[in-house]
User: Fold TrkA-N domain protein from Methanosalsum zhilinae.
Amino acid sequence: MEISRFIPKKSIKLYTSVIVSVIILYSFVFLHLTVAEGQIENANLLTAVYWVMTTMTTVGYGDVVLLSDTGKAFSILVQLSGITIVFGILFPQIIIPWIEKAVKTKLPTHVPDDMKHHIVICASTKLVEILIEGLKDQKVSYVVIDDDEQAVRELMKNDIICIYGNPAEEDTLQRAKVQSARFLIANKSDSENANIALTARKISQVEIISMADDISNTKYLRYAGANKVLSPKRLLGLYMGKRAVDPFVNRLTGAIEFLDGVNIVEFPVYPKSPLVGKTLKVANIQKRTGANIVGMLKGGTFSFHPEDSDIITENTVFLATGTTEQLSNLQKLTV
Assistant:
């Protein structure tokens, strides 16, 4: 693996020139001192370079030694400058960046050549992970783009198709084959989603779905190129409003199709529900219904990251995703 792939060639040439120049200079000084000290057997270029290299790297085998006071002072100078060059320049400026970037290249950066009609998902979150489970069940192709190295490694560990890169950059989206994708989901902060939408719209006509933390940013995300803007908080408010008008409705009122055949909807938990008093882990909703809980409203606080230890109460509201059948199964458990 060539270092020049990862470090600018100008930098490599500069550092190499400095190091070689210093070694040559020190070698000639060494030759002069060995002759002055009468060490004729060591007065040759090979020994000079050998001594300079071992002294600069602080290895110092001790088989070749300068004995005069001037020679000892020169040895100290070579050691100190060697520490600066090797540990202050060579390692931090060339070796370590090379190793780090070489490791990063092991992260996936391209989708398979035959991937098409897939879903491009920008950033990994709990909502996305649950959404992916639904995509897998329906055998829908997808790829997650994330610029967090650790997040990508975690996705790889969980066998989730992903690539490493900034989803707001053209090159990354092209490597994700956004031009042949069914649609793109922007799932970062509102400002980042706007940049993603602008970039994606510049290079493709893919349908863009953007998540919005702040409802007031909806129009700006649309201006940026998003075809749809979803705000889970807004969806929750609309659903609860409909429930207030018709609290005993037996159908999936307020359900919004998030993907083909996959809906997102909110379910309040009623006092007589068998789920009341149980933790999410004990309730085991996903296994019992097939639906996924992506958020919870409890005690006036909404969380997009519900924990297994969260207790379900009669005033809990679930934000769930799934097919119509899966959500209907969940609805039966909440009443």
Observations:
- The chain has three domains: 3-104, 119-230, 233-334.
